[in-house]
Write a structure and sequence with these properties.
alpha/beta, Rossmann fold, 7 strands
Length: 138
């Protein structure tokens, strides 16, 4: 599925399409350059899933937890990981296999720990305020 967002005002409808497209998948991997809008899209997805909490980047805490309307949501930012053993040490499996939504920024830092099935979201900058969002089920 390919989505184009020419402004942040279009993100709520894009998030609703992503949630609908993902069906029962709970693991979402976000790829894109620094500043592409991964955290902004995750914030909108969390709102779509019913969280009323403030969604922020877990750059320093590695993971933030939110409560959605029906599920817990875990938001990971693995940018600062030096190696996969740091994800092992934090007990990533308990999160990934908890049936909660898991939104993972910088999954390329843990390639050997990724589950077999997930939703891959690639965000590409196409202009100062526009993005192309490619969504695939793997």
């Amino acid at each position: 599925m390919l989505l184009n967002a020419t402004s942040t005002a279009q993100l709520p409808s894009a998030a609703a399409e992503i949630v609908s497209f993902s069906a029962n998948e709970r693991i979402f991997l976000f790829y894109g350059d620094m500043g592409a809008g991964k955290t902004t899209l995750i914030k909108t997805l969390c709102e779509c899933l019913g969280t009323t909490e403030t969604v922020t980047s877990p750059t320093f805490s590695i993971v933030n937890e939110y409560i959605g309307a029906k599920n817990r949501i875990f938001h990971f930012d693995f940018y600062r990981l030096k190696n996969e053993s740091e994800a092992l040490d934090m007990g990533y499996e308990e999160y990934f296999y908890s049936d909660a939504y898991c939104f993972i920024e910088w999954p390329e830092k843990i390639p050997n720990l990724l589950p077999d099935h997930y939703v891959k979201i690639q965000i590409s900058v196409t202009g100062s305020s526009s993005r192309q969002i490619l969504v695939e089920k793997i």
